[in-house]
Design goal:
This protein is of the alpha/beta class and about 700 residues long. The protein is built from 31 helices and 16 strands. The strands form five sheets. Strands 1-2-3-4-5 form a five-stranded mixed β-sheet. It has a five-stranded parallel β-sheet with strand order 7-8-9-6-12, sandwiched between helices. A two-stranded antiparallel ribbon has the order 10-11. Strand 3 (about 65-70), helix 4 (about 80-90) and strand 4 (about 95-105) form a beta-alpha-beta unit. The longest helix is centred in the C-terminal third of the chain and has 26 residues, at about 530-555. The radius of gyration is 33 Å and the shape is globular.
Length: about 700
C-alpha cells in the first residue's frame, strides 16, 4: 500500500485539503512523493509525482516516477497538454519522471473523447491515461480501478507502429554519444555529416539535436529536407536566397529584401552571415537527403554544376566568420570523398568529418523492446530480443515494425500480457517479413538509386554469388561503405550478411526482376560449356596453390604426393543435362577428390582419415567434399545410414532452396553448378584460412 509523503502533506495538502481524495485511488500501487501548482501557457495545473511500487514496475515497465496532473477545468484545451509538455522539460520533472506516459485528471466529463480526437492526429504523443474527477472520487474503494485504466490505455495502443521521423523525445532511444559529439561540433562552429541506410534514424537524430540546441539556446538551427521539390528544383542562388530569408526571419532582419542572382548571391549571403557574426550569434544549417542537391543526382541535373557554387559560398563564409556550421545527412559519403568534380575541387572534400548511423546495438534494442513492450502487455525474453536484433540488424524502423506486426498476430490469439519467446517469433517470422516488404525495400532504395555499384555487390552476396563477390571486392571501396552501413560484417575473416531480412529482400527482388526459378542464378544454356571449362581450370589452379600452402605449413595432405588422380577425367567433365550425365560427373568428382583422400589415408595406415583428420583440419573444404560423397552415394542407390540421409536432406534443401526435386526445371545441372561453384569457393576460403 502506498503512502503520501510527510512533506507533501505539510507543503501542499495542508493548504489544498480537497485534493487528498484525488490521490487515494493511486495509493494501491504508488507513493505520492511531490506536489505543487505549476503555471504555464495561461493555465494553472496541480502536479504530483507518484513513485510506483514493485508490482507496478514489473507489470508496466515503470523505472521512474509517474507524473500525475490535475486540470481543474470544465473544458479540455490544447494549452493544458502544452503546459504539461513544458513540465517534462523543466526541473524537478526533467530526468525524474517517466517520459512515455502520464496520468491526467480533469473536471471535464468528456476528457476521454477529447483526447482520442487530439491524439489521433498526433501519433507521437505520450501515453496519456485520463481520469475524470467524478470517477476518481467514486473509485476510492476500488483497488483495481487504476490497474484497469492502465491496461485499457497501455495494452490497446501499438507503440511500435511509428514510421515517421521522431520530432519529440518520448520515443527516442539510444544515440546519446552521437548527440553529444555533434552538439559539441555546433558549439565549436565545426561541420559534421551523418550517413546511413534509410530509416536508421538520421532525421530523428537531426531533430533531437535541433531541439537540444534550441532548448539550451546554443544556436539558430535551420533544417532543410533536400528531396523536397521546392529545394531540389531551384538553382543554387535561389536556394541560398531561401536560406537567407529563413535566417533573416529568425533574427527579425528586415533589410534583406534584395533578390539573389547568380552574380550577387554569394556576396549578399556573406554580408548576412557577417551581420550574424557581429551580433555574436551562431547558425547551424542541417541539410538532409544531401544526394538530391549534389553532383550524383539524376533527378535535377543542374545540381551537377550548382553544387560547386553553392558549397563554395559556405566555404568562403566559414573562412571569414566563425559563426556558421552545417550538418549534412544522406545515404553515402561519396559527396565528401571525391576530390575533383569535372576538374574543379570539391568544396566539401576533406573538411566535413562524418560517421555512419547504424542500427541500435543489442542493449539499445533491449531497452526499446522492454520499455515499449511492457506498456503494450508484451514481455520480450532475452532470447527473442537477441533473435529480433540479429535478424533485423538493430535497424530501428524494421525492428519497430516487426514488433508491431508481432503484436498484431499474437493479440488476435492470446490474452495480454503475453510472454514472447524466440520460438514464437521464429514460427511467424516469415509472415512478419511479408508485412515488412515495403520497409525492407525502402531501407535500401536510395543505395539502389544513387549507388548502383554498391547495391550490385550486396546483391551478389545476397543471392549466394560469393565467387563473383570475392573477385570484385578485392579492391572495391563499395565494400567499405557496405560494412559501414553494417549491411555486411566480418566473421571469421570473411564478409557475411549482417541484416538478413534486407539481404532476403534484395535476393527475392533479383530473382523476381530476372524471372529466375531460384535465387541463385543458374548459368544459361548457351554459356554452360565455357563456364564449365573455366571452372575446371580455376579449380585445378587453386588446388595447386592450396597444396603448396599445405606443404609449406606442414598440414596433413589431402591427396598425397601426386595430387588428385584422374586429372584427364576431371578436365573432360561433361555439361550435365540429365541423370546419366550427372552420374558420370558425380562419380568423377568423387574418385578425384574424395576416394583419393580416403585412399591416401589408408596408405599411411590412418583409419577414417576423411571423416576424422580431414574434417577436423579442413573446415572450409570438408563440407563440399562430403556433399560430393553424399550425392554420389544417393545417386548410385547405395545404402544410406541415418547420418548420411540427414546430410542429403540438408544439402538438397540448400541447393534447391527448399523446393522439391520435381519442381526444378533442370535439377541435375543445378546440382552440378552448385557443387563446382561451391568447391571453388571453399578451396579459396581454405587458402585464405591457411595463408
Amino acid at each position: 500500500m502506498g503512502t503520501i509523503r510527510t512533506e507533501v502533506t505539510a507543503n501542499y495538502l495542508n493548504t489544498n485539503p480537497g485534493d487528498r481524495e484525488l490521490l487515494l485511488p493511486f495509493l494501491d500501487g504508488f507513493h505520492v512523493t511531490w506536489a505543487n501548482i505549476i503555471r504555464g501557457y495561461n493555465t494553472a495545473l496541480k502536479v504530483f509525482f507518484l513513485s510506483p511500487e514493485e508490482h507496478y514496475k514489473e507489470s508496466y515497465g515503470f523505472e521512474n516516477e509517474i507524473l500525475l496532473v490535475y486540470a481543474p477545468y470544465e473544458r479540455m484545451e490544447p494549452r493544458t497538454l502544452q503546459a504539461i509538455e513544458q513540465i517534462f522539460t523543466t526541473s524537478p520533472a526533467k530526468g525524474r519522471v517517466e517520459t512515455l506516459n502520464y496520468f491526467l485528471i480533469s473536471d471535464s466529463e468528456s476528457v476521454n473523447e477529447w483526447l482520442d480526437a487530439y491524439i489521433s492526429s498526433r501519433q507521437e504523443t505520450r501515453i496519456i491515461v485520463p481520469f475524470t474527477k467524478t470517477e476518481i472520487i467514486n473509485a476510492k474503494a476500488d483497488n483495481w480501478f487504476v490497474r484497469n485504466k492502465l491496461n485499457s490505455h497501455f495494452f490497446g495502443r501499438d507503440l511500435f507502429n511509428y514510421s515517421l521521423p521522431l520530432v519529440e523525445d518520448a520515443y527516442f532511444f539510444g544515440r546519446q554519444n552521437i548527440i553529444m559529439e555533434y552538439y559539441d561540433a555546433i558549439r565549436r562552429n565545426e561541420n559534421k555529416a551523418i550517413f546511413g541506410l534509410r530509416k536508421t534514424g538520421k532525421t530523428s537524430l537531426l531533430f533531437k539535436l535541433k531541439r537540444r540546441c534550441e532548448s539550451e539556446k546554443l544556436a539558430c538551427v535551420l533544417y532543410f529536407d533536400c528531396k523536397l521539390p521546392h529545394i531540389r528544383k531551384v538553382r543554387w542562388y535561389q536556394l541560398l536566397n531561401d536560406i537567407a530569408n529563413n535566417i533573416s526571419e529568425h533574427y527579425n532582419i528586415t533589410n534583406n529584401s534584395i533578390e539573389y542572382t547568380e552574380v550577387n548571391a554569394s556576396k549578399l549571403f556573406m554580408n548576412l552571415i557577417r551581420d550574424i557574426y557581429q551580433k555574436g550569434e551562431k547558425i547551424c544549417l542541417m541539410f538532409d537527403e544531401i544526394e538530391y542537391i549534389s553532383f550524383i543526382t539524376n533527378k535535377d541535373k543542374h545540381w551537377k554544376d550548382d553544387y560547386i557554387e553553392f558549397w563554395q559560398t559556405f566555404w568562403s563564409c566559414q573562412s571569414q566568420f566563425k559563426c556558421l556550421s552545417y550538418i549534412i545527412a544522406g545515404v553515402n559519403p561519396s559527396t565528401l570523398e571525391i576530390d575533383l568534380i569535372n576538374g574543379v575541387q570539391n568544396p566539401l572534400f576533406g573538411i566535413v568529418p562524418h560517421r555512419f548511423l547504424t542500427g541500435l546495438d543489442l542493449e539499445e534494442t533491449k531497452t526499446m523492446l522492454k520499455k515499449l513492450g511492457k506498456r503494450m502487455g508484451l514481455v520480450f525474453s532475452q532470447d527473442v530480443i537477441t533473435a529480433i536484433h540479429n535478424w533485423y540488424g538493430g535497424h530501428p524502423l524494421l525492428t519497430r515494425q516487426a514488433c508491431s506486426t508481432l503484436n498484431t498476430f499474437l493479440s488476435d490469439k492470446l490474452k495480454k500480457p503475453i510472454e514472447i519467446s524466440s520460438v514464437m517469433f521464429n514460427d511467424i517470422k516469415s509472415n512478419i517479413d511479408q508485412e515488412l516488404t515495403f520497409y525492407s525495400n525502402h531501407a535500401i532504395s536510395e543505395i539502389k538509386e544513387f549507388y548502383p555499384d554498391e547495391y550490385y555487390m550486396l546483391e551478389l552476396l545476397a543471392t549466394g554469388q560469393e565467387l563473383d563477390f570475392r573477385e570484385l571486392s578485392m579492391d572495391s571501396s563499395n565494400i567499405k561503405h557496405l560494412c559501414s552501413y553494417e549491411l555486411l560484417k566480418i566473421l571469421n575473416n570473411k564478409l557475411v550478411i549482417n541484416i538478413p531480412v534486407i539481404a532476403q529482400r534484395v535476393a527475392m527482388e533479383s530473382k523476381r526482376s530476372e524471372g529466375r526459378e531460384l535465387v541463385y542464378p543458374i548459368v544459361k544454356l548457351e554459356r554452360r560449356l565455357p563456364w564449365l571449362k573455366r571452372r575446371i581450370q580455376e579449380i585445378v589452379a587453386d588446388i595447386n596453390v592450396l597444396e603448396k600452402l599445405i606443404n609449406k605449413v606442414g598440414k596433413k595432405k589431402l591427396f598425397g604426393i601426386n595430387s588428385f588422380p584422374e586429372g584427364a577425367s576431371f578436365a573432360s567433365l561433361p555439361v550435365v543435362t540429365d541423370l546419366n550425365s550427372f552420374l558420370v560427373f558425380i562419380n568423377i568428382m568423387n574418385r578425384c577428390f574424395v576416394e583419393s583422400i580416403e585412399s591416401y589415408g589408408l596408405s599411411i595406415s590412418i583409419k577414417d582419415y576423411f571423416w576424422k583428420d580431414i574434417k577436423a583440419d579442413y573446415g572450409c573444404i570438408w563440407p563440399i567434399l562430403n556433399r560430393i560423397k553424399v550425392y554420389r552415394n544417393e545417386r548410385d542407390h547405395l545404402h544410406l545410414n541415418n547420418s548420411t540421409t540427414d546430410y542429403l536432406v540438408n544439402y538438397l534443401e540448400v541447393d534447391f532452396e527448399g523446393r522439391k526435386f520435381s519442381q526444378i526445371e533442370e535439377p541435375y545441372f543445378v546440382l552440378q553448378q552448385r557443387i563446382l561453384d561451391g568447391f571453388l569457393l571453399q578451396i579459396q576460403n581454405e587458402i585464405d584460412a591457411i595463408s
